[in-house]
Design a protein that fits this description.
This protein starts with a helix and ends with a helix. The protein is of the alpha+beta class. It contains four helices and three strands, in the order H-E-E-H-H-E-H. Helix content is 59%, strand content 18%.
Amino acid sequence: MARLRVERVAEAIRSEVADILAREIKDPRLGFATITDVEVSEDLRHVKIFVSVMGDKTQVDETMAALESATGFVRSEIGRRIRLRHTPEIVFRYDTSIRRGARVFELLKEIRGERGTESKKGGQE
């Protein structure tokens, strides 16, 4: 039963933080960021928010700096929007899983392309 509550709180936080990033934070350093996952501790006092950022290393660094500076504001908004006994401490983490997935996809496309050319070569002889 407790695990279900943690999952519900995580989903509520994900939804609210996405809304806060889209509508409330006006920091020009904040690039195109997507909330990819939210991990909430069992006692609901700590939250890790995983963020994927589109762009190069500079844009990622600037976006993460903007999120870091907005952590207090995001936490206070979460406390206002979601009824919890204690407002959790929030930590933003850069999520590289989308970038890694895209790289794997590109490698698979290359492998398929090489196999396609090998079979064509074999058929020409």
